């Protein structure tokens, strides 16, 4: 909101202040998905008050913290104009690699975890180099990497979960020092705040928007787009690795199915939150709200007791409706206002 | 894995869609170990995925292997009718075909020479009886499957049926789908517990179920009587620690080994019985030792 | 040429040769720019001006061409645009390149949003500096607006501001005035003069020769990738330029045209046209009415953002409007472009990159798209017929492309413009709306386009022409409407008008509107 | 080739004829993936001659005919600037719906099959309308539809395969009148030829390229882009339905898993074949060669006996390499040639 108020100072100092201010608030990019989220939470709560029970909230936040960690990276990468379909496989691969390092190779746990992160960042580096230097479309490269990663998981584990893991891993997974949530949540929150700050307030972040928005311009003004893209790929790889290892800690086992299917979930979440698939637009807050929204829906449908067969249908419908709501908001609230240019929501998204 | 032509033994093919599913991998291990032990050349084909059960995608891979190697017997994973035409085709071409995990009645699948596997309805029944007794005949049970497939459907149905017959006071909630990604499954289970404060027990027909439910019970701080599937080490540990009540000891490893044996016998021209059911009992904390031993000896 | 300065040239090239997949764009260019001068780079479309400037900016990287670049007499190699900028070179590209999703301020300071004060952005300061830059350029755009909502002329000015924000020593402007009208051009020139006074050097590319006379100190003329002439200020003369560029003598600029008799029934009538304005961009259009008779060339004169483009777009069904549009005296319902086309209306858009060219299709298909009906039978494209139609159209407009199969992305700007002209003409329209028809077109071709416009009028087509060069509208149009802030404020016929008169009526209208606004504010 | 030679006639009539002609051949868009395909086939054949055994070729062609039918639609849709992630679910849904129609409702088989096609086209219509009219991104809408379709499959079947089906279905599935291949292959070949013709030679096809290239421009020249996009969505839906029902006939059973996971396979295939994810570029031949290439790789790896764990890795790597080869071809053969502009492949693609 701070940002919204800031904008008041300039240009027009006319009357209609409250209405304008309201319109401006509604014009903020994240408001669409936030609104949808609030509607959904209210609906589920009315249907079944247990939806807002501490435990359910905690369970939702826990899952969101895993996917959310990846979503942070994916949002950055999407802003930079690329995307990564291999995140699920990278999460799984890093988890089983670090698990193997701490069991089969008996490395100290911190080293093994570092190894996991390096695997993730390394895969990201490869993705980035291939996309940027060899000009292979990200879709192909990261889909290929998804297959490669899934294959490597099988090679590393031979199909068996890596189990048992050293007790300290279980301790990490079982910790619950913040509102019953543990390390993964804390990491998620700090990473999200940092990433949001970087994207909104730093030269690095704005250059990332330029890179994704129009690489031609970015090059003209001397932004090294190759570095930015490779860096974003590495970030998403490292964050996927961290998310994978948190899941591993949570399960106390290096299971081969960690991360399976996440690639589409993560992208779906951030896109629902208004991050553009085509680069250069979207915010961290939006992307993460989108991920939260999808988790709220999945969980809420179970809580209110929707038949399993219909749950998936409802998820699909709600996903589309949430984005539809956002589009309606833009069309009516913003286009109809006298105070805001038609594309204002993107302004704020990008500011 | 393929050393066709090197060893002198029989060539045996194992066709299993969704090849990388952890439970499928366990079956493949049982097969490969036994098969080698018998001195055969063994090969596994199937679409490489842990989530997509893609039969049309797996058949060409089997055909590719058959184009190269003359197999003496073929084992085809057969949980549903979609694979029957393929079995029929193989039968017509003269391959002896064995299936496992489900036991289609003799003659119902053209071309099928033998079948082995747990008797799924009886496994579901055993789970129901064991849980009903533990609950003292009353309470609400949550029931989850990994996905909707024949094996799990049949297991759930028989669980429900037995419960309704033997413990009519027990209520079972509608079936929910866990999926195969562990953290998402756990989130769903917690949501289910929140929406249903009276749940006191959970039965899951998928291999991850014991982990899913024990994790959910811990996070929701709700003591539950949990029965899951499969005696992998982590599940045994969970039962041992008391976080779950028991697991259905699906004889995954044994049935696969038996499949290898049956295929070998058929390849050698021996007569085998068509039906080869295996017991699937519910094991609880008291029965764990032999299973740990079995895992130790399998090097897991 | 005599060396007038003791100091070495700020930028000099030696024997630059550059070819693209078989096209020789530059065939050995020796070019020198001296400190403190505004140096015009002239040449016909496709002569290689943009290519040369791109080489000097590191857009075409060192190694992709042969020859030598000297900066201040020392050899330099630009492997990227940032290296060029490190040498103090600034660049405004010919095509509009902006970041649609970012604010104006972020576009101006793209790449150095930190203003050199560390990694964290101070938005207020950035916006203040943007405002300061805009003030010089006479731009009243809120720095916090999204560039996506700007008009193409405004975007162009944002690009100029962006180049200035880097405080270059040598500034290269590739057709910066192509979409500007007189007032904006004058403002830009005063900025350039100020920079010159500060000792900065500029390379200025334009097809508007009067601008060269107005501001440049020296000129280099390129022809077919070679330097055809270097001309000092004392020898400046339009005829001389044109001869150097094309090897031809200057023809009389505007062809004669006799307007249809005043009692001819109008072909196009617009009544009470109303278009909603967009915040910060323009005030929309209110109560615009006019008639165009068959064979008449109607000009719309006005300043940037006055609403001329919008009027054309409304008639063509591209933006929503209220009011009546009549063709042949019958009202036609125009909700989308296909309705307008069905009524025989065609539009040449002003921004060829955004809403002109199809970069995924080759030259030929770009010309025939939307006009395939006569070139096909039973829904099948007759390739022979299509090809000959394309070749005819290309020849008629002298489109310089290697073949109908060539990619449009690699045509020079002027040739892209001609290609779009060919497309529009192929639909054989009865009403033709031309938005900046000569944008980026060289003097010789410009004459051809005027000729074409007159020919079309002679064939009974009703034409509406928008051009930002006032002199051009006045010269070509039979009748001219002056548009200011979305209203028609004046009208005159051929021979009555002059640039001064147009500007005066615009100023008067604006003053009146201001008065009204003040009055209504006072009442409130 | 015909197209290539044809181009000789016009404009330039210089010397260097053979070299130019060769270069032009290499410049044709499909040559990249064709080359990769030939290299792979040769490699697999040398490693294991059984790769080209009738049996294996037939098995490959059979499955390619299923996926290929969908790929035809997907290529058209991608050319038109959109894409559809719901094809797998639509294939499955249409199959089980028609299966239910012919069993539970005992409708005559042709009617039931028609019903299946209508389901597919109907889903396509919804996708198209939502994307075009409500402006919801295709990614969100079709991903939502993927979930909805999967849910509906469960609702329709309650999780059990629809079995047995009327014998005529089995007959369709078992037919083997062309080189041991049956109806699905025949349909695939005819549909592919027709679609190729439409894209290359008709006004419809040309307008589809314009729509995908720049919808704004397409609208300006009077093309009703909404109709084109909706039509393409319906085509891909109907073709997915047909593919699903062919699979059903092949399996003699309306299984719930039909089509699961195909969405990415199909897109991966056509993109490997040079069809752009961003619209307006690519050919039918290229897209289908890409799909064939992926299947050749998967099957070939089995034939030559690569360890199962490594197969998926190899698929990922080869997929990326195939596209890389195409990019190299463009860079060296075309950029270096005197006769062809750098983007010539697009030229030909679109002509
Ligand atoms: N990237 C490219 N690929 C291929 N050919 C190119 C490329 N860029 C320019 N050309 C060709 O080089 C020649 C010179 O083009 P250039 O853009 O420098 O002309 P120009 O003098 O700026 O013309 P205009 O006045 O129309 O802008 C033209 O024939 C053009 O087609
Ligand atoms: N209400 C509107 N909705 C959508 N697009 C609009 C609207 N108003 C203007 N535009 C678009 O903005 C662009 C330019 O507008 P405008 O006519 O104000 O600018 P200009 O070309 O600089 O000035 P002039 O009108 O004097 O030519 C055009 O592409 C027009 O279609
Ligand atoms: Mg130029
Ligand atoms: Mg204009």
Account of the protein in words:
The complex is a heterotetramer, with 2 copies of chain A (351 residues), 1 copy of chain B (300 residues) and 1 copy of chain C (524 residues). Chain A is mainly α. Chain A contains 16 helices and no strands. Chain A has helices at residues 2-6, 17-27, 29-47, 54-79, 87-103, 109-133, 138-157, 167-174, 183-201, 203-213, 215-220, 225-251, 262-272, 284-303, 308-336, 344-350. The two termini of chain A are 12 Å apart. Chain B has 300 residues and is α/β, with parallel strands linked by helices. Chain B is built from 10 helices and 13 strands. In chain B, the strands form 2 sheets. In chain B, strands 6, 7, 8, 9, 10, 11 and 13 form a 7-stranded mixed β-sheet that branches. In chain B, strands 2-1-3-4-5-12 form a 6-stranded parallel β-sheet, sandwiched between helices. Chain B is elongated and about 60 Å long. The two termini of chain B are 19 Å apart. Among the domains of chain C are: 1-79 and 206-246, Rossmann fold, CATH 3.40.50.300; 294-320 and 334-520, P-loop containing nucleotide triphosphate hydrolases (Rossmann fold), CATH 3.40.50. Chain C has helices at 49-56, 81-86, 104-108, 123-137, 152-165, 182-197, 209-215, 238-246, 308-315, 337-342, 352-355, 363-368, 383-397, 413-426, 443-458, 470-476, 499-523, and strands spanning 11-20, 23-33, 38-43, 66-71, 74-76, 89-92, 170-174, 201-205, 218-223, 226-232, 268-275, 285-292, 297-302, 322-327, 330-331, 345-348, 376-377, 380-381, 431-435, 462-466, 479-484, 487-493. Chain C is α/β, with parallel strands linked by helices and 524 residues long. Chain C is globular, with a radius of gyration of 24 Å. In chain C, helix 4 (123-137) crosses helix 5 and helix 13 packs across helix 14 (413-426). The N and C termini of chain C lie far apart (67 Å). The mean pLDDT of chain C is 89. Chain C has a 6-stranded mixed β-sheet, sandwiched between helices. Chain C has a 6-stranded mixed β-sheet with strand order 16-19-20-13-21-22, with helices on both faces. Chain C has a 4-stranded antiparallel β-sheet with strand order 2-1-4-5, with helices on one face. Chains A and B meet through helix 4, helix 7, helix 12 and helix 14 of A and helix 1, strand 8, helix 6, helix 7 and helix 8 of B. The structure holds adenosine-5'-triphosphate (2 copies) and magnesium ion (2 copies). The site of one adenosine-5'-triphosphate has 21 residues of chain C, from strand 2, helix 1 and helix 14. Chains A, D: It is found in: Cell membrane. Chains A, D: Pfam families: BPD_transp_2. Chains A, D: It is a multi-pass membrane protein.
